[in-house]
Amino acid sequence: MTEKDFIPKPYTHTLETGSVTWESPSNIALVKYWGKKKNQIPENPSLSFTLNKCKTITTLSFTKKLKEDHTFSFDIYLDGEKKADFKPKIQTFFERIEIYLPFLKKYVFKIETENTFPHSSGIASSASGMSALALCLMSIEKQLLDADVSHKEDEGPFTQKYFNQKASFLARLGSGSACRSIEGALIAWGKTEGIEGSTDLFGIKYPYQVHENFKNYQDTILLVDKGEKQVSSTVGHNLMYNHPYALNRFQQAHQNLETLKEILGSGDLDAFNALVESEALTLHAMMMTSMPYFILMKPNTLEIINRIWNFRQKTGLPVSFTLDAGANVHVLYPHNESQKILQFIKSELVVYCQNGHYICDQIGLGANQTQ
To answer: pTM here?
Structure first.
């Protein structure tokens, strides 16, 4: 598919007013995406677990303008509080997607959103937030086309498959990683020879058999720092343009994705732990070796990592960590080892969390419309 495939035919219906609500999860990349080209195209492929409890709930209300103008009209509320500082990002998003959703300037929108986790704390709130908003917009377009979305992928012009692909495509133009939050449980994004159907334009469901070891995988998120990140992901991505190790990193991501494909099929938990931890540390190594350089890990992040390593060496239990672009630690482990590993987390790791806060999550199946 190309970008042109997402430009709609003329709308067949009109809507005066209405609202729609979607809840969309965050995701945690196993193979990391870091560095992008123009129009939110990734420099390297990535593969992520879709989460279940860490999500954004967004209600999009709309009223048709009495008189058409050439502006985007919207207000944004987070947890009931009007957020003027969010408007520039949504304005940019609307400008990018207007060609694909030409109804945007014909309505006044009210965007009401809330997260089940702390905003801007390294749990990819932009991924869940932008995917939820993209899904709300797609639901409006479905009504404007009066499309009966078929759940059979090969029936009709507006199938569930197309709905999800376009939602992922739009979400990507708001936040790259948001394209991986539409579906679950494993989502690939970025063109790579190792994954059939992979594309830079949107995320796809991982198309290969996954070993039972990785079904219902657990992710306990240790909230080391719930504040705003010192350096935004957008700034971090941009620092890859002249990074001395960028090309090697992009090549490594392709290789690691191919290796992870074998691991997911074989169920090799030791190899899985080694690869995802290496990917996490490589992500932060790229931050520390960019110019200007920066460090998003905190002292307690390193304390947690070392305790995980010591616990794994002592017990042989298959527990590992990964990190996003922040200080928080995602502790990954299979469901059948939950009891012992959760006890370890509570007794040895929670002390390093801000105010003792952590979230027990697991692999989820993607977004849901609730209204």
So the answer is: 0.95
